[in-house]
């Protein structure tokens, strides 16, 4: 197997040694790197499965992200922003702090108090970062919704979190068009009386209507005082809710705390990215996802780093756009996804080759397993065999990276396709159904054995669900829902999801969520979806729909159903293929056999169908797929 030994000149064996000795003490030593107005009296309170880190300690996320950097150097550039239309803005740490203070004061004026929720639905503009930090500054809980989600998805999330204020913009730019954000919010919140105000940023200048609850950012927020003290909060004070898909129909509100989360993010950002004062860091993730929370907002800012923030599509209006950005800002660290890399690779080497990428010194990836051939392309064509690649495994729930090469502290042996070893202080294992460790090189379920600082506090308003989803398969271990394998060197190889969660272009989507989207259409009786391998997106969605009696399956209806899914969930959930069938393969107890569906769609051998209620359903699906292959000329 190929492997590459590569380092950045760092070698600090004391970190792993200390972590192996006593991992709670070890995390305590990492927490010392943050600002605390009061020190904790207890490092960890563990009432399984609830962990509270640095109990008694007081701190503030916005203070750690801004004031600390401003004290060091107020003029240091924080954000080099580029709009999709080519416009740009530069904000220093001092600029950011003033803007955050103004928005924090505006939120206070609107009655937002410590612990209240604020929903944020913005494009990738500096005001998105400012919004998160303004909430954090006053102890409000931010809940960001990715700007690709639809009105219905926003409504569900806003109702669940009971947000009193929403921050949005007139629009956002994506692939040359304007995404209507404000109009979507208007639809989403119709009749929701608990929403008191909507702050609207003028960004694209498109026509929108202002309603009684609306406040214009450039009038209301900009008129506020640019000073606002950061409120010092308990270490476990909730910092944010981030909704993510699981195996049930409704997304789960993952709740993160402050002190533990920041400690984990701070430490991993340093170990993984080896951040230095002169670096220009560029993470391509949208802040609507956890990667953006941890490694666009909190990680880089707590380290006083300079970063590029880009508004639009990475291949718009030329496939070279990303390489032009890297060359224009002399980016030194690039953190992106396998999906994006597959897309870049497909458009050809001439685009990266015709741009100056010599500034790059470190490359990263996150979100899905990376195919070894894509890894090698990244290493050779982009990194010119000089840059380590950090393949980072983690989840919305884990808060920060759990498995990754760490060039910030050690020389590493990289194996293309493996995320390497667990980070210090994180105890990972690969186990069988009974929780017993599987032999080396065998497939099993990935679990985390000990609580860790970035660990979610719970699911918003649902402790029971938190226990069932993560802590019921194994009593004393966190169940991640991923298949994995560990080799004899302790390297972890991620083998995809073990549950009904899809990863489409790196975005997490629950099959049940999409299925209930279908069923909410008046013509649909039931539906089953599963993921099939896709060259660029990793996985794409294939849907099998049973119509209500008397409804005629037509091409138009297929189109209508796709539109319906785009409207109810968002464009990211659109199926690539949709089939009308009379029956779904189900167990006798009525559960859809998704594993079987997946096996059929991937033409795998079907072994055990003893629990199947009606074999005819399998034949019907097989023949629908055969017809499709025939049409595509692949058979
Ligand atoms: C997958 C994203 C392989 C995995 C930060 C996990 C990965 C899910 C990797 C979490 C990786 C993430 N290699 N698979 N490096 N990183 N995953 O919550 O299935 O959007 O459980 O967090 O993404 O997705 P989420």
Automatic annotation (TrEMBL):
Give all residue intervals belonging to the AMP-dependent synthetase/ligase domain. 68-452
The UniProt record lists the EC number as: 6.2.1.1
In terms of superkingdom, the source organism counts as Archaea
Instruction: State the UniProt keywords alphabetically.
Output: ATP-binding, Ligase, Nucleotide-binding
Which is an annotated Pfam family here? ACAS_N
Q: Does the keyword Nucleotide-binding apply?
A: yes
Name its GO BP terms in alphabetical order.
acetyl-CoA biosynthetic process from acetate; carbon fixation by 3-hydroxypropionate cycle
Which InterPro entries does the record associate with it? Ac_CoA_lig (IPR011904), ACAS_N (IPR032387), AMP-bd_C (IPR025110), AMP-bd_C_sf (IPR045851), AMP-binding_CS (IPR020845), AMP-dep_synth/lig_dom (IPR000873), ANL_N_sf (IPR042099)
Domain AMP-binding enzyme C-terminal, first and last residues per copy? 513-591
Top enzyme class: ligase
Molecular function (Gene Ontology), one example: ATP binding
Task: Report the sequence similarity comment from the record.
Answer: Belongs to the ATP-dependent AMP-binding enzyme family.
State the protein's name.
Answer: Acetate--CoA ligase
> Which organism is this protein's natural source?
Candidatus Nitrosotalea okcheonensis
UniProt lists the gene as acsA
